[in-house]
Amino acid sequence: MIQVSGSAITAIRGNTGRVLLKLSNYNLTSGDRVVFLTKDKVGGETIFSVEITSFIGGDAIIYFTSDNLGTVGTFVYDVTIYFADGDIDTVVQGTLQVKPV
Hints:
The chain is mostly beta strands. It is 0% helix and 54% strand. It is built from no helices and 8 strands. It is globular.
């Protein structure tokens, strides 16, 4: 189970799921990349990242696997868009809490 409240994401260790990233000011297209990057703390070590390169109706879907939800703890994340034209924009920052089973 994955729950989203604002920019806070909560999940159960080892579960899988997906989160729809709907950005009202953007229409993601072929050639764009969205990267969901999770770290142990701001400026810390990367825990895992998810790269999205295909979009549905201009929106991105972040798929979480049991591997990237395998560590219990509270982490920080950001979502950055790398546009095909070379522009880069960090659009979301928040927390990811992975709870034990």
